[in-house]
Specification:
Elements: H1 2-13, H2 16-25, H3 29-42, H4 48-57, H5 60-74, H6 78-85, H7 88-98, H8 111-121, H9 130-139, H10 142-156, H11 160-167, H12 170-176, H13 184-194, H14 199-210, H15 214-221, H16 224-236
Length: 248
């Protein structure tokens, strides 16, 4: 009750994107993600960017909790709602991610095989075996995939992102690789979901990948009120790198 009163008080005093950010940070991450997914599915058209960002980046435990909260808050199954609004290979990969049952850890004996299978499914053949991409990228752990992508580059001479871009299109392509550009709402969702998980690692990765600190990037891209809040969060909690962190 106290939390609800505080959120109501904040909403009465704030406005715009800053209000959305503060209220989001006051909301449990699973509840926030569930609400964002419901909004993405029940609005005018489907906001695939939201589906992709949340389902591709959350841990298995987070996904399972989101499913529970979604059913409790909105009275339906998230998988059913997603299947009603999506189709094809894109839908298949979303459903796999939605199960929250990705393999854990790294299987040393499987790394080279996965890399070869991905190459054979894409660059190494005429046409694309999307099922193979879906199976490997949907079921392996983030740690395992990083090792697979390193092996893939040694094998093919190119990054996995290049293969994905060349072999897939549309929402499936977007789900398989990180989305580029500045998106206030995506940044907000990532700050909420990762603020107590792995923000330090993400900030370091952002600096390594882009050659600039997140603090500086926020200053350049966002409005003053959001800059102040996110910059503080960046230094105390750290920040974000990419929507799909397995493709780094």
């Amino acid at each position: 009750m106290l939390l609800l009163d505080l959120v109501s008080a904040l909403k009465s005093e704030l406005g715009g994107l800053f209000e959305s950010l503060i209220v989001a940070l006051m909301t449990p991450s699973a509840s926030y993600d569930a609400a964002q997914l419901h909004k993405a599915l029940k609005g005018a058209g489907t906001d695939d960017d939201v589906l992709i960002e949340i389902l591709a980046s959350r841990t298995c435990e987070q996904i399972k909790e989101i499913n529970k909260v979604y059913k409790k808050e909105f009275g339906g199954k998230l998988e059913k709602d997603i299947c009603s609004d999506t189709s094809g290979s894109y839908q298949k990969l979303l459903v796999i991610l939605l199960q929250g049952s990705r393999e854990q850890g790294v299987d040393e004996g499987q790394i080279e095989k996965d890399a070869k299978d991905l190459y054979a499914a894409g660059e190494g053949k005429l046409g694309t075996d999307e099922e193979k991409f879906i199976t490997i990228l949907g079921n392996r752990s983030a740690e395992h995939l990083r090792r697979v992508f390193d092996a893939y580059k040694k094998l093919s001479g190119s990054d996995i992102e290049d293969s994905i871009t060349g072999e897939t299109t549309g929402n499936l392509e977007n789900l398989l690789e990180a989305r580029a550009g500045t998106d206030d709402n995506t940044l907000m969702r990532i700050m909420v979901s990762r603020s107590e998980v792995d923000m330090l690692d993400i900030r370091a990765c952002f600096k390594k990948k882009y050659g600039a600190s997140l603090y500086t990037t926020i200053q350049v891209l966002l409005s003053k009120s959001i800059i102040t809040f996110l910059s503080i969060s960046s230094h105390s909690l750290c920040a974000f790198c990419e929507t799909l962190n397995i493709l780094e």
